[in-house]
Every structure is written in C-alpha cells, then in structure tokens.
Design goal:
28% strand, Rossmann fold, 9 strands, 26% helix, 209 residues, alpha/beta, binds S-adenosylmethionine, globular
C-alpha cells in the first residue's frame, strides 16, 4: 500500500481530523531502515527489543475514540517508536503537550531521535514504568495506553481529569480495548477485540525475563 491508499482505507474507522494528522506524520521515520518501504502497510512492525509499532488503523481508532483537541495535556503509556505520540501531538496543536512514557531505555532514545527527525516539538519522552502513570505532569485530559494491562491501573484513573478520557487494552490471551471516562465516577465501555504487547510493571504484568 502507498500512503494515499492507506489514508483512504482509514476513512471507514477514523475521524477526518485524525486522518489529516496522520497525513502530516511520516511513519517511515519511525521505523528501522530495512522496514521503511513497508511504512504504509496497515500492520504492526517490529521496532526492536521484542516490541512493535502499532498498525496505522489501531492508531487511527484510538485517536478517534480519544477525541483529542488543541491545547490538551496527554499521557501516552508505551511510547515505542514515538509514532503514535507524534500523531497525538499533531492533534493537540496548538498549545497541547504529549508526555510519552516508555520502559525500555533503547526505545526511549530511538523515539527521541525519530521525533526530532520528524520535527515534532510537543512530545516529551520519559523512561519509567507507565503503569504508575506520570504524576508530575497530571492531571491529563487524555491517556492513551498502547500495551495490554491485567486490569485498568488505579494510578492512571486517578491521573485523569474530570471529563477526561482514557483508551486502554485489557486482558491477556483475549484482550479488549476500553474507553474509560471520568465523570462523577469512572465509566468503562468495551470497544473491540485487540492484540497488544503486555504492559509490564508494578500495576501491569510481571516481567518474565
Ligand atoms: N505506540 C507505539 C508506537 O507508536 O510505536 C507502540 C507501542 S508498543 C505496541 C508498546 C510499548 O509499551 C512497548 O514499546 C513496550 O516496551 C512499552 N511498555 C510495556 N510496559 C510498559 C510500562 N509499564 N511502561 C512504559 N512502557 C511500557
């Protein structure tokens, strides 16, 4: 697939603003060199250390569910290559900021390089256990979790603003994507079946290595 074909295939699942944001972010810059020719295939691809960049349709769906708006303060858990953060950064401009947390040091460095090469200025990549959130920049208008959790981590819920939204995959062998909304309480809505790598951390799965 080329970029135009991919973007038009996303029209069925994504908001036009999200597709426009994705048209501005060159996915090839977030991939290892040998895989750059496959940047517009609608599939996850390996980025090293056993991790993957999410499929474009999954980024598009998660961004659409989140309803990201200019000026928002956003937390991403599971930064990987930095691609998904770059798309969200485009959607919250002007005035918005994305804090992207990744646990693997080598991926943190690569994501920072990728984002700089793509000219993205409103993403800060931080190495830490995102299952605990990132209290120093909370509360967040939106939280996007790109790794599957055993259950919805309490620290992430507590770091959401009132009227805030979070998307998060939950489950192990069978996973589902949830939209969590905070109002006078927390409301969790199941959206679809998905496949993600595990969220490893204190409020996630245990590291088996
Ligand atoms: N959004 C990414 C992108 O656009 O490339 C893809 C994310 S990949 C599917 C999931 C990422 O979550 C992996 O890079 C993995 O190392 C990371 N991860 C897993 N557990 C984590 C944790 N507790 N805190 C932060 N990152 C975590």
């Amino acid at each position: 697939m080329n970029k135009e074909q991919l973007l038009s295939s996303l029209e069925e699942v994504a908001d036009p603003r999200v597709i426009s944001a994705m048209s501005h972010v060159p996915r090839e810059l977030f991939l290892p060199e040998p895989l750059q020719s496959r940047a517009y295939d609608d599939t996850p691809l390996p980025i090293g250390r056993g991790q993957t960049i999410s499929a474009p349709h999954m980024v598009a769906i998660m961004c659409t569910i989140l309803d990201l708006q200019p000026g928002m303060n956003v937390l991403e858990v599971g930064g990987g290559s930095g691609y998904h953060a770059a798309v969200m950064a485009e959607l919250v401009r002007p005035g918005g900021q994305v804090y992207s947390v990744e646990r693997i040091a080598g991926l943190v460095e690569a994501a920072r390089l990728n984002l700089a090469r793509a000219g993205v200025e409103n993403v800060t990549v931080i190495q830490s256990d995102g299952s605990l959130g990132l209290p120093e920049h909370a509360p967040y208008d939106r939280i996007s979790v790109a790794a599957t959790a055993p259950s919805i981590p309490e620290p992430l819920k507590q770091q959401l603003k009132i009227e805030g939204r979070m998307v998060i995959p939950v489950g192990e062998d069978y996973q589902e994507l949830y939209l969590v909304t905070r109002k006078n309480g927390f409301f969790a809505e199941r959206k679809m079946g998905v496949i993600f790598v595990p969220l490893i951390g204190e409020e996630g799965f245990k590291d088996r290595n």
